[in-house]
Amino acid sequence: MAEKTGRCMCGAVSFTAQGTLDRFNICACDMCRRVTGSQFFSVWLRMDDVDMTGAEHIRTLQSSDWAERAFCGKCGSALWYRPTDNSDGVGLSLGLFDDIAGLEADNHWYTDKEICRTVKLAPAHTMTEAETHAQFGGGAV
Question: Closest Cα partner for 42 from 87, 98, 68, 80?
Answer without folding.
Answer: 80
